Amino acid sequence: MKRKRASFKGAWYPASAGECETSIQAFLKEKGGPLKGRFAGGIVPHAGWVFSGSIACRVIASLQTESKVDAVIIFGVHMRPDSRPFILSQGSWETPFGDLDVQEELSGKIMEEQRIEKLSPGYFPDENTIELQLPFVKYFFGDTPIVAMGVPPSDEAERIGEAAFDASEALGLKTVVIGSTDMTHYGAAFGFTPAGSGDKAYKWVKEENDRAAVRALMEIDPRKIIREGLSNQNMCCAGAAAAAAAAAKKAGAGRAVEVDYSTSYEKSPGDSFVGYSGVLFSMD
Fold first, then answer.
1. What is the arithmetic mean of pLDDT over 244-256?
2. How much is the pTM?
3. Is 176 left (phi over 0), alpha (psi -120 to 50) or beta?
């Protein structure tokens, strides 16, 4: 079986299973562990684990269910509105806990419904948006296979999310969805300084720009998520977030729960920083 090698282990997250487990257990102790409920999916950040791993860990841990999950669908990748969506069609992806196989039947079914470029492990890009979630997926979901997709911030995102749910339902598969996006990238390092610098800028990002993005996610509104991300630069992967929201909404999610919010400023103060949010789409 063809295998996609992990590209960020040992740098953005620990290289060994033991070190990953130690980090995961520490993350779960930070703010009370997983949330209780029935969740169709969630939104996770994708910075290095030291910055946003705690939020991503709690969201993914909360997606566990008492009944077996047949596939975990992960939407991610930094893309432009005119980018072409793509999917990992076969093989497996390496994690420190062991490989995660691709759910090839589901990937194939999604491709039947949407015009999505078919990529093999050797051609799928090295993307932190997806890879940084995979050790969490492997830890909490074991041998459950994955579907990994790159989704542009365009109208296609909603269609792809709905098609992913429809394909799962047609095959009789129980799935959960994950949308991977960081929030505002603020400062000279990112060429984005509309609120100046210092405390004023930090407060604007937290209380205004990122808060507007979180509101769009909480409304589970794919089109509003796309508009918000493109207009205000407060979601770097708005397409991934919109696809996850669309799939979760079609699965029956009627409300959203904010898990946590933070920025890299708390860990590494400076004029340039990034926001991180975790959201769960609830069916309760």
1. 97
2. 0.97
3. beta
